[in-house]
Amino acid sequence: MTVALAKSFAAAAPARLALRGSAAHARRAVSVCVSGSRIANQDLMQVAQQAAEAGAKVVMEAVDKPRNIQFKGSTSDLVTDTDRSSEESVLAVIRQAFPDHAVLGEEGGVSGDMNSDYLWCVDPLDGTTNFAHGYPSFAVCVAVLRHTTPVASTVIEFCGGPGTWMTRTYTAARNGGAFCNGKPIQVSKTHDVEKSLLVTGFGYEHDECWKANMQLFQHYTDVSQGVRRLGSAAIDMCHVASGMAEAYWEYRLKPWDMAAGVLMVEEAGGSVTTMDGRAFSVFDRSVVVSNGYLHEKLLQKMEPTTTALVSEGIDLSQWFVPKGYRVHSGAQLE
C-alpha cells in the first residue's frame, strides 16, 4: 500500500460513514478502466471502500429503528428493507466507477457485463439475523474478483449494541496488505490447536453438511480453547486476519459471503483452502481459513470428513458462477 493511501485510511474515523468524494474517486477509477485493461488493485480498493461506506451509512441510519423483516424461504433466513437499500447504495458507487464490470449481489443477483474480467461480489448486510435482533456482529462487504481471484475488498463491521454502535473498517488489496482502520493487521502466531480460538458457522439447511459440521464443532470444542459461532462469515474471517481467532471454516457459503474475507486473511499472512485441502476459489462450497501454522493440522480432521460427504454424493464442487462470466482454471491468477 502506498504511504499516501495508508494515511488517507488512517484519517478516516471508524464511524464516519458519509460517502465523501465518491464522484471524484469514481472518475479517477474510470479513467484507468479502459476496455480490456488491467486496473490497479489500489484503485479497485478505493472504490470498494467507498461503496461499502455508502452501504454502511444506510445500515447505521436504520440500525436502531424498527425492522421490516421478510423471509427468503425459512424463518431463519431473513431479509430486511435495509439489506436492499444498502445494496442499492453499494451498487450505485460501483456502477458509477466501473459501468462495464460484472456484479453479483446477494439481493439483486447478477448484473452488468458478464464478459468483463472483473466481478464485484456484494453482501450488503452480512449477518442479517444479528442485525434484526440488534446483536453484533454484522457487516457490509464489498469485494472485486479478477476472474476467480479476489483483488480488493472492504468489510465494515458493526460493533457495540443498541445506542452504542461503532464500526471497524477492514480493507485489503492483493499484494498490498490488510488493514483495520488504516493500521496493518496480521494473523496470530499460535502453532497449537490446543491454544487456539476457532470460529465456524452453520447454514440454514439442516442437511448432511450441517450434521458433519456439528461433529467438527464438537471435536474442536473438545481440543481447542473454544469454538465461536458469530453469524457473519466475513467478520469471522476478518477476526482471523487480525489475530483475534486462529481459524474459521464452513460449508456451503456463497461467493458474496467469502470474497471479501478470504482476501483479508491472505493479505494478513494466513492460508485459505477448501475443507478437503484443494486450492480455493469463491465459487467453491467449502472454505477453511487459518493463521497458516494450524492449517495442515486442521485439515487432518476436516479433509476426511469432507471427502466422506463427497463419497456419499454431496456436491461440493464449484457453483454459483454467473452465466457467461469467464472463469479461468485454478484459484489464483497472481
From TrEMBL:
Cofactor(s) needed: Mg(2+)
GO BP annotations listed: inositol metabolic process; phosphatidylinositol phosphate biosynthetic process; signal transduction
Keyword Magnesium appears in the UniProt entry: yes
GO function term, MF aspect, one: metal ion binding
Assigned EC number: 3.1.3.25
Reactions it catalyzes: a myo-inositol phosphate + H2O = myo-inositol + phosphate
Xref: InterPro entries: IMPase, Inositol_monoP_metal-BS, Inositol_monoPase_Li-sen, Inositol_monophosphatase-like, Inositol_monophosphatase_CS
Residues given in the record as Mg(2+) binding sites: 106, 123, 125-126, 257
Signal peptide region: none
Classification via PROSITE patterns: IMP_1, IMP_2
UniProtKB keywords: Hydrolase, Lithium, Magnesium, Metal-binding
Enzyme class: hydrolase
Pfam families named in the record: Inositol_P
Pathway(s) served: Polyol metabolism; myo-inositol biosynthesis; myo-inositol from D-glucose 6-phosphate: step 2/2
Family: Belongs to the inositol monophosphatase superfamily.
Name assigned to this protein: Inositol-1-monophosphatase
